[in-house]
Structure formats: C-alpha cells, structure tokens
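User: tokens in, sequence out, please.
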C-alpha cells in the first residue's frame, strides 16, 4: 500500500518467446479502468517498471498480457490469477482535520490478525489489538507460577504504544480444568479461589503496564469469555461464579478495570446470543460482575456477501427483521439498559467471508465478489458504531486456512492462507477499511438519521470536541443483491436528500467516497442531493444542531 500522491513503481516480469508488447491496465474496486498503457519487451525473461504517482485513492488491480503471445499474471497464494493488487491510502487531513483525544481509549477501531504487523495496523488506522493473559497462557503448568511484571509485555506493544490492549482472559489450563485438559472457558476452573488470585495478578500486571506504557489511557479492558455459547457445558451457577471470581480478582488490584462479557458470536435475537446470555445469567447476578458488554458482531450463521447485515430489514416477517444487524443493535442496547444503565459496548470481532461453497483457486474470488465483500464488510462496522458501540474490531488480517475469505488481504505465499502471513496484498475491503477508520475514528455517535427512505441507511457522527459532523450513507436493495450467490449490482443507486444545514441556507459540503476520494457538493435550502450506492460514502458538514435534531442517539450510549 502506498501513500497518496507519492511515487511508487509497478514491476512486471515477462518471458516472451519473441519480441512483443505488454498491454496493461489498473482497475479500481468497481472494475473501472483508472490507468492503462503498453510497452515493448524483448524475448526472454526481463522485468520492466512503470513509475506511478496517484492522486486517486483506493484499491488497484493490475492486469497485464502480451499482445501477440497472450499470457496472464499467475495466481499467488489466495490471490486469483490475472491480477496483482495494491492500494493507495487516502489523505484526508485537509478534510477531517486533526482530532484531539482527551484520552487514548476514545479511539474506535481494533483488529484481529495483525498483532505484530505495525505497518498494516497503521495503514488501516487501527488502535486496538487483543493481548493474551489467559490462565492457560500465563500458568500453563501449575498454580502460582505467574509473577506480574511490566517486563512481560510483548515487545510489540512496548515499541508501539499507540496500539492499546484488550486483555483476553478465556482459556483454562489442564491442571485447573474439570475435563483434565485445556478448555476455552467452557467449564469454570476447578479451583475458583486460585483463579481469582490469578486474576488479581493480571490486574496488577495490567495496571502497571498502563502506567508505564499508556499514561493517557483512561481504563483497562478485560474480556472474560470468548464465544462461550459454542461450548459451555458447566452449570449456570458456575458461569456466574467464574465471572465473579474474575471480576473480584481484577478489581482488587486494578481500580481502572473494565471487565467485559460475554462475547457470544452474535449480538442479539437468540438464546445463545450475547443478549440471551445477559438475560439468562443476568437473572443469576451476572450484571454485578461486568462493567461493560462485549460481543462479536455476526448477524447470522454465515456472514458473507450474499447475506448482508441489512438483508432481513425489509422482510415482512418480524422474526427476520429482528435478525438484521441494525435491529440487533437496538435490541442489545435495550437489554443492556434494562440490566445496567449506560454501559459501554465493545465489539471485539466482526468479519465477512466469501460466499458459501467457494474455495481459493485460480478463478476465486471474482472482481464482483471482492466488490461485494468490501461493501458488506464496511457497512457492518458502521452499523455497529452507529448503533452504539464504543469500539468495533475488524476481522481478519490476511486469509487463513479453514474459513474462506475472511481476510482483508490476500496471503501471497500460501494457497489456503496461513496465520501470521506477512507477504500480502490488499483486497478492496482493506482499502475501504482504511477510509472508514480515517473518517470515523475520533467521533462520537449521534445515531441513525431519522426519516431516510426505505432502503437508505444513514448514520451521523460528530468529531470529539464538538467538531465536524460526518454522515455515513448508503443504499441497499434486496432485488439487486442475490441471496444465493450470483452477480451483485455494482451500479445500483438511489437518490437521497440529506439535511446538512438550516432551511433556507445554501453552501457546500465535502463528500468522501468509500475509498477516500474527495469532492465538493453544493447544497440548497439546507439539503444536499446525494446519489447513494451499495458502498458507503461520507458527508462532512458543520451544523451539528441540525444533525442532532435529525438523528437518534442509541439508548444508553454516553459517548466515547
């Protein structure tokens, strides 16, 4: 990935049987040609370079062939044949300005899959990653073998204090497990007294690390369980007892602790979702042992392009409507407010795969699949933040084995992907993420815009310190978006008039497209006429009074 308006080179290697001409082009995420050309090559192996400077931002897919002898770019790892991809990062400083953070944990974006890859995290605008402090990681061989120390912080965090830690606590070692082997907190520990003592050590450790490395971070954040509904096999009482031990242990040594749970795969609308666990175990006292709610952000059993987060929202069946992610957010915040008012909410994982039945290979994924993958992935995170989450966590870094397409980057070495891959090239989703984080980090949520027509989704945010207003807007049409795979419309659009100022006024606002390209749009009578598509765009305006009057703050959300 390259900076906007900075020089870089495209290098193309050929092995022509005789003198020939390379015909090349670069297309964006929508398949539109952004640059093209040709150059002569001699017979045999040679590498030719094309000097580039791009004032356009986004995803680039390079294609090349020999005019006489054909040929194509080979597939590489999980990247299909025919393309080599790169990204140009948006430069939005002149539009967004500089946001002042009163404390570091006001940042809103985390990521899984890139722990240690600071270049990727910086390019994507990430401020949070997940760090291991499970009992199984710190005391694998027996009790009282872990001594808290600032020096046990991963050197990655020491070198990059802009990357904050969500402390992961799930994982019971064999010696403290009721099964006699490691379990991922699917049973309470055998010795809850020792477990509570261990958590006190984690609190000591984390508190000391914060003082030494994160002096401007207001709180420390701990997640006790990780998708417990996938395997919880102990009693209901023991679930609450495990949380009580963790909570009391951590709070005994860390006065700034925020203990979170329950991090089920889905936010709401089922008994095994986070809301189901909050209701079930809340009745047994769980509310007393969490300071905030964490959840993962999947909205059905398969989050992929053909099942976008808003898909059920226009379904006449109320049960299907409730499963749409925006409606899940409303339900989750409502149950949180009834259980313990004004709690903070953290999404610690959410991602989108390719459509079902796909396998990595020379022809997978298609350009159309990559377009849809990006559109759906970004929209889910905007809905999460717009619905009242403090933080949302992008999933995943690069493609990995076993689940096809969750990566926002291709792994160029491994045909099925690999955890920890470092030879990467971006998918459109990565570049859409890079724009979203630059635009929405450093904001408070104002909420969903009221009165938008059916099929139009718009959420308003305001920069910290009562700054600029940013409205994220897009359209979704079920008719243009096949539910069983197929070709997704890349041209569907609809008109939307957004109020950005007082009636009777005129002026200009700034529009940022989904990949960070900026334009100026005039408005009259306080309204700006937009053409919204399946890919979100962002409108930067100044009148916060109007934005607040036309949006609804999520229930219980009290700001960053």
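Assistant: Sequence out:
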């Amino acid at each position: 990935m390259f900076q906007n308006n900075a020089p870089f080179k495209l290098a193309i290697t050929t092995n022509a049987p005789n003198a020939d001409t390379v015909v090349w082009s670069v297309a964006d995420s929508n398949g539109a040609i952004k640059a093209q050309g040709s150059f002569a090559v001699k017979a045999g192996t040679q590498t030719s370079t094309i000097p580039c400077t791009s004032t356009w931002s986004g995803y680039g897919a390079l294609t090349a062939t020999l005019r006489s002898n054909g040929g194509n770019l080979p597939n590489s790892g999980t990247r299909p044949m025919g393309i080599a991809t790169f990204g140009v990062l948006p430069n939005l400083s002149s539009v967004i300005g500089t946001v002042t953070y009163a404390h570091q944990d006001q940042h809103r974006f985390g990521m899984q899959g890139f722990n240690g890859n600071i270049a990727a995290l910086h390019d994507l605008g990430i401020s949070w990653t997940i760090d291991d402090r499970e009992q199984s990681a710190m005391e694998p061989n027996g009790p009282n073998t872990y001594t808290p120390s600032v020096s046990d912080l991963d050197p990655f965090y020491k070198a990059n204090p802009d990357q904050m830690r969500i402390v992961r606590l799930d994982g019971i070692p064999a010696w403290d497990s009721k099964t006699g082997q490691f379990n991922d907190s699917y049973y309470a520990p055998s010795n809850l007294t020792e477990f509570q003592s261990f958590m006190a050590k984690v609190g000591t450790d984390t508190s000391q690390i914060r003082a030494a490395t994160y002096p401007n971070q207001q709180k420390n954040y701990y997640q006790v369980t990780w998708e417990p509904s996938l395997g919880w096999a102990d009693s209901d009482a023991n679930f609450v007892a495990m949380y009580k031990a963790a909570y009391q242990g951590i709070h005994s040594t860390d006065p700034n602790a925020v203990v979170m749970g329950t991090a089920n795969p889905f936010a709401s609308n089922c008994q095994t979702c986070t809301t189901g666990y909050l209701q079930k175990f809340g009745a047994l006292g769980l509310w007393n042992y969490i300071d905030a709610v964490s959840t993962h952000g999947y909205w059905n059993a398969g989050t992929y392009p053909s099942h976008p987060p808003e898909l059920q929202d226009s379904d006449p069946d109320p049960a299907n409507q409730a499963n749409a992610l925006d409606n899940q957010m409303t339900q989750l915040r409502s149950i949180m407010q009834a259980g313990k008012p004004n709690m903070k909410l953290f999404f610690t994982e959410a991602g989108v795969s390719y459509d079902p039945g796909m396998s990595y290979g020379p022809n997978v994924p298609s350009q159309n699949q990559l377009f849809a993958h990006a559109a759906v992935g970004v929209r889910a995170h905007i809905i999460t933040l717009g619905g009242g989450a403090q933080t949302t966590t992008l999933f995943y870094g690069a493609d990995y084995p076993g689940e096809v397409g969750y990566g926002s980057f291709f792994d160029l070495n491994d045909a099925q992907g690999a955890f920890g891959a470092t030879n990467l090239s971006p998918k459109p989703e990565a570049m859409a993420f890079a724009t979203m984080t630059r635009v929405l980090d450093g904001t408070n949520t104002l909420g969903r815009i009221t009165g938008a027509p059916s099929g139009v989704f718009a959420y308003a945010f305001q920069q910290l310190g009562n700054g600029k207003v940013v409205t994220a807007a897009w359209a979704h049409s079920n008719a243009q978006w096949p539910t069983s795979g197929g070709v997704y419309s890349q041209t569907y659009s609809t008109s939307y008039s957004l109020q950005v100022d007082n009636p009777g006024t005129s002026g200009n606002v700034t529009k940022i497209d989904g990949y960070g390209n900026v334009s100026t749009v005039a408005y009259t009578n306080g309204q700006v006429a937009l053409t919204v598509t399946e890919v979100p765009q962002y409108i930067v305006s100044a009148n916060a009074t109007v934005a607040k009057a036309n949006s609804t703050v999520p229930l219980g959300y009290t700001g960053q």
